[in-house]
Design a protein that fits this description.
Layout lengths: L9 E4 L4 E2 L5 E2 L3 E7 L9 E5 L26 E2 L4 E2 L4 E5 L14 E2 L4 E2 L9 H15 L4 E6 L1 H12 L4 E7 L7 H15 L16 H15 L2 H7 L17 H13 L5 H13 L2 H5 L2 H5 L5 E7 L7 H13 L4 E6 L7 H4 L1 H13 L1
Parallel strand pairs: 5-8, 5-11, 6-7, 11-12, 12-13, 13-14
Antiparallel strand pairs: 1-4, 2-3, 4-8, 9-10
Length: 365
């Protein structure tokens, strides 16, 4: 068996406040990040990996020899993988508002000495990019490729729009330029589950019981959107765990799966962060900001690869094609692939072999 590659999460502290979209300033921002491979002298072989909703900076390899699981996209990052660390300097940072080392609502507010909780300002995808830009400058990157799936795709899209001279290629996977009304509705239900929890305490739960049940339900709602009807049927069908209980407990295999996903999630994620990050996804809309997608893409200097999955109804192929059509109208270089999959939205994390072939071909171009 191949030896485990050990990496450490690093931390970068911004030396200036950031003006946010909500017009508030945020100071003392710290960013958790990891890097894989080496930056070349020209500073132009970087790939910035942008994570999805509840992931983190630990995208590849292991933190210790005892780790049972590698980083969340280890199948794609490393020697001779899609993002080949023999060629590229790969970076992944935890987003602003997160709870995995980057400043967020669970961080200590320097003005009070207590966690920010709901005193943390409401953030946007654009704010996340502003913070990431400070890290990229610190690392000495001059040109880069940006890559993201799901919410990470929104970040990649925004990078190409807001920093056209820095981004040379953009890979957007299982994403749309804005969340649908249905997607916003699911996020609203998830946030209400958290806020309605008896332990939420207006976000000030850090010294007491956490709103674990509310967060667990929010995660259950999320997982429904990550799968599709076919995936649920193939995984669970209408199978019982054992036999009908004739009460309101967990009877079906699909119920058991959702309960399990909700239960393990509360051990690794902060409820307030879930509120803030889902709101940032809801707000993102370059079409509204620029008047049209064509206007949003007008000044980009990037090549684009857009990948969708046939069974993804959260970010559908039809939605992905709105970006493709806008780029074509702007005479931008764009490649598009819809991959056949029965895995739903989660396919971008699961169907790595299919994606590898496409991405390797795109990066050679």
């Amino acid at each position: 068996m191949e030896d485990k590659i050990i990496v450490k999460t690093k931390y970068f502290k911004l030396n200036k406040p950031i003006k946010l979209e909500c017009q508030k300033e945020l100071s003392d921002i710290e960013v958790a990040y990891e890097t894989y491979g080496e930056l070349n002298e020209a500073g132009d072989n970087a790939i910035l990996i942008l994570h999805a909703l509840t992931a983190d900076a630990h995208a590849a390899h292991y933190h210790s020899k005892d780790d049972k699981k590698p980083g969340w996209w280890d199948t794609m990052i490393g020697d001779n993988k899609a993002f080949d660390t023999k060629k590229y300097f790969v970076i992944c940072s935890n987003i602003l508002g997160g709870c995995k080392g980057t400043t967020g609502p669970s961080s200590i507010n320097p003005n009070t000495g207590k966690p920010y909780a709901l005193d943390f300002p409401v953030i946007t995808i654009e704010d996340m990019i502003k913070v990431q830009k400070e890290l990229i400058d610190f690392l000495g990157v001059k040109k880069m490729i940006v890559v993201g799936g799901s919410m990470g795709g929104m970040q990649a899209l925004e990078w190409s729009i807001s920093h056209p001279d820095l981004v040379k290629s953009t890979i957007i996977i299982a994403c749309a330029p804005r969340l649908s009304a249905q997607g916003i509705a699911f996020n609203a239900v998830a946030r209400n589950a958290i806020i309605s929890d008896k332990n939420f305490n207006n976000g000030n739960y850090y010294e007491g019981e956490h709103p674990e049940r509310g967060l667990s339900i929010a995660r259950m709602v999320g997982h429904i959107t990550y799968l599709c009807e076919e995936a649920m049927h193939n995984k669970f069908g209408r199978d019982f765990k054992d036999k009908p209980s004739f009460d309101f407990g967990v009877d079906f295999q699909v119920e058991s799966y959702l309960e399990y996903q909700g239960r393990i999630f509360v051990d690794r994620f902060d409820a307030n962060s879930y509120l803030y990050i889902t709101k940032a996804v809801d707000y993102y809309d370059p079409t509204k900001k620029y008047g049209s997608l064509e206007n949003a893409f007008k000044n980009t200097n990037s090549r684009f690869l857009i990948i969708s999955f046939s069974s993804d109804w959260l970010f559908s192929t039809e939605q992905a094609k709105t970006m493709v059509n806008a780029l074509v109208k702007d005479n931008k270089e764009v490649s598009f692939v819809e991959l056949k999959s029965a895995c739903g939205h989660d396919a971008f994390l699961i169907e790595w072999e299919k994606q590898t072939k496409i991405i390797e071909s795109f990066l050679k171009g």
